[in-house]
Write a structure and sequence with these properties.
Layout lengths: L1 H24 E9 L7 E10 L5 E7 L3 E12 L2 E7 L2 E3 L3 E5 L5 E7 L8 E8 L5 E8 L2
Parallel strand pairs: 1-10
Antiparallel strand pairs: 1-2, 2-7, 2-8, 3-6, 3-9, 4-5, 4-8, 9-10
Length: about 140
């Protein structure tokens, strides 16, 4: 029985260290979402994501309890017109970062179940292929 406990404890420590290591090798800074106005059911979220791994990472999807859908989108200028398209994944090269901003790639929060008020904080999970989900907190800001 003691041997089984020791093996379980050792595995728990190893898994916990690997999860923490992944958390530190993928860093999120300046995470925020836009406040909503009136009866708006959409918002957008922005942040800087840094990949400290020696290989690329692939963000497959994002979830939050405050929206029915969370999608990664990209804004581009084509012929003087702003166009937005959904991305199926977001790849961040090894030892590099990406900035999600109002002018480019960002996260759309669709069918919100509450108003987003300045100063509130919301939780979000970022799902990365072959890694545990990364849980972050965003602050709600005005434009």
């Amino acid at each position: 029985m003691r041997k089984a406990f020791c093996i379980f404890y050792f595995c728990f420590i190893i898994l916990n260290v690997n999860a923490n290591q992944t958390q530190h090798q993928i860093e999120v800074n300046n995470a925020w979402a836009r406040q909503t106005f009136g009866n708006s059911k959409i918002s957008s979220a922005y942040m800087e994501i840094t990949n400290h791994h020696n290989s690329p990472i692939e963000i497959t999807h994002i979830t939050t309890d405050i929206a029915e859908l969370s999608e990664i989108h990209d804004m581009t200028h084509q012929g003087g017109v702003m166009r937005m398209r959904k991305l199926e994944k977001l790849v961040i090269p090894e030892n590099d970062n990406i900035i999600l901003s109002p002018e480019g790639k960002h996260i759309m929060l669709i069918n919100l179940n509450k108003k987003l008020l300045v100063g509130e904080k919301i939780a979000m999970k970022i799902f990365i292929k072959d890694h545990p989900p990364l849980e972050i907190e965003l602050i709600i800001k005005s434009n």
